[in-house]
Amino acid sequence: xxPRIRIAESYEAMxxxxxxxxxxxxxxxxxxRMLLPTGHTPLGMYRRLVEITRHEGLRWDRAQVFxxxxxxxxxxxxxxxxxxxxxxxxxxxxxxxxxxxxxxxxAADPGSECARYExxxxxxxxxxxxxxxxxxxxxxxxxxxxPFTSRTRVVTLTADTRRANAPDFGGDPEAVPPQALTVGIAxxxxxxxxxxxxxxxxxxxxxxxxxxxxxxxxxxxxALQRHPRVTWFLDRExxxxxxPELVPAGVGxxxxxxxxGSEGRNRGGAGRD
Length: 273
Ligand code: PGA
Prior knowledge:
single chain, alpha/beta, Rossmann fold, eight-stranded mixed sheet, 11 strands, globular, isomerase, identical protein binding
């Protein structure tokens, strides 16, 4: 089934649209089980979610938050860890807090830690998965070549990913941990609904290949074509490579837009249906 595609005029509008969609899911289902990403792209979404939580009294105390990935060797107190990022940008602003689980990058046995996490995700049952996409088409740390059947596991990062994430480690790609733990592609696809966020021209080729290209493990995000309920939140630059027939000019809602429970309209300046 084609995905829904929502194109916003700016990064801020894209972030607001994604945050409002997450907030609506949480308001409709206070026990929402969600898998959330880190990275630069979702920062605006988290800022807006914190504002919505404050202003609209959104409650998180029955929800459960899982993190998508973590660097191998980094613990919650390490400045570069994703657990620390999430504490800083989202979790410390939520009171009362949701239950939180994440992959422990410092586990003595990373393989067992991945198996534990896979079981925890299966037991919870993910209602919503939110993802970014790498310039190389990765989702989570499922780098090009990751099988679509992959589960939560230890992976080796590509040079491109370490370069992209170097700003978080003083600008030095060599300082970025070479390995990580990530939720797998098959695990991601088990979520009931998936949101993907992308902004900026550097992401346009990956977005185009993920949505319009063939199903190809060389583009891990193309696996999302197998999922019946995906919404892409894009700014204009990230959407630049998409077929105008899929996304008619000036129209924010592309694809079928017809899956059950779809939001009938766009909000927050995120384009028009
Ligand atoms: P970014 O990362 O948001 O920092 O670009 C996205 C990703 O690599 O998944």
